Amino acid sequence: MNIFHRKSVLAACLAAMMSLCAHAQQGETSPPLSDYFSPATTGVMTPDNEGFIQRWLLLEPIDKPNRSNTVFTDSYIREAFATEYFPGQFTVLPKNGDKVKVGKQKLTWHALESKLFNVKLFRFASGMKKQVYGVLFWAVTVIECPEEMENVRMSVGSNSASMWWLNGEEAVILSGDRRMVKDDCMSRRLTLKKGKNIIRGAIINGPGMSDFCVRFVDENGTPVKNITISYK
Question: What is the pTM of this model?
Fold first, then answer.
């Protein structure tokens, strides 16, 4: 093979790789949202067999540029999550289809049920034709308990950093550049009150995939499953 032929082959390979990258960035090769989520219903829903919560209200991603996830120290994410991006972010229970304005962005809340134990935020964003990198997500759900449950722990995994609240009180924080792992961090002992309990979460990521999983476990580490999940 002469040098001109080799250069032609290399140029063709490079062009093909660049084309593939461009298609991927445009989401043309992304699977549909329905592969990962279905619209939330009003029917009774309980955690899956391992206790994971799959019904959530998800806000379309907020633009939060970060070139690296190494900046996600406790102090950074506390400041990032304490910032008010939209009115009532820590108090209002959003409804499916509600819209908020964050800077120049107009974002919508979506009530969805994950088809997996974890919630694929990257797939949610790409399925909505939204940005997938340098983003901050908000997630809200309601769990209803038939009776008060003491000494339970909120168990969370996320990619990348995240922070979670139960009934307005901070429950657990996951800082740093991390991959999602089941039961990566657990809260202190908490009490789930009889009736409705509101869980809020904020997940931030720079480059890479974004997802999370949440469940409650009792004193023995057994998943709590005798609860129902709603978005109202």
Answer: 0.86
